[in-house]
Amino acid sequence: AAARNRQRAGSPESRRRALGLLCLSQVGVWAATFLSVFLGPFAIKEMTGSFALGGLPFAMYYLSNLLVVFPAGRLMDRVGRAPVLALGHATGAGGAAAVALSLGAHAGGNPLVLASFLGGLFLLSAGSSIAFLTRVPAADLYPLEERARGIGRIILMSFAGSLLGAGAFAALARDGPFAVASGYILMLPFFFLGFASMVLLSRSSFRMASVMRGPRGSLRSVLARPGVRWTVASNAGAQGGMGGVMSFASAALMPLGGLVSGAVMLGHFGGMFLPSPVAGRLADRVSRSTCILMGGLVLGLGAALFVRTDIDWLAGVGLICVGAGWCLTYIPGSAIL
Prior knowledge:
15 helices; 337 residues
């Protein structure tokens, strides 16, 4: 089936064009995600008056993953990859706009405004979760034995998106205190970039909407396949470990100042994405399971450094290791699945 898909997909030039458009999609969603990760706890503080519920945006993100990603994958298999990714970007933009409007209208704990804020957070998270599925068509572009390398190449583009998001945040925080709602408005052009690239891809000669479809099956049948449960469990552990650290990282780093803490967060994203071509090659050439185990060890070391040390630069190293450990787990896990 993979060979037939590659044969029908068109010329190498059309495949390179498809990869380029997927890269733009990845850049867009990760630029918005950088802003979302950093601004989430401060949006909660603005709505509630404290950081006590600062982990709520991360909880919303994981809840949206649980609820929308598997149905989105099924929809991809039915209608194609690009239309569903475009839907994810549009949903994320709608959520970001709703959060910005809610923050601007917040007054005296109005329950309707609070409901709009929470709904916007969910839509932002759900849209981003769907847009992160760029790795699925990226894997479709490569034969089975090279899929980890293919996923690594597309994940590398996430760092370019993080740089864009960091630049936007630096411009926002350059003159001191800023309106949190402005950060959510800044997400809109990044989601538009991803949406436009997927619209172009769906209309291109590559025709992903008709070429890239996968076999259909229930979640139970997928989990019954060899190695899948181990992969799901290890990736869930890595994602949960990193999410637990990052849920309070921005608030913990804020005493260092907006620009310094933003640079540290960018280092974390660098740890997540810059090693991805190496991680993909390692997973394909050595062993995907071995790569996952290495990732778990690196992530655990980084989390311990960040949580236990009082030395600022060591905490930064810890966040970088958390990101690198996630990378070594995520790419081979995605290739296995």
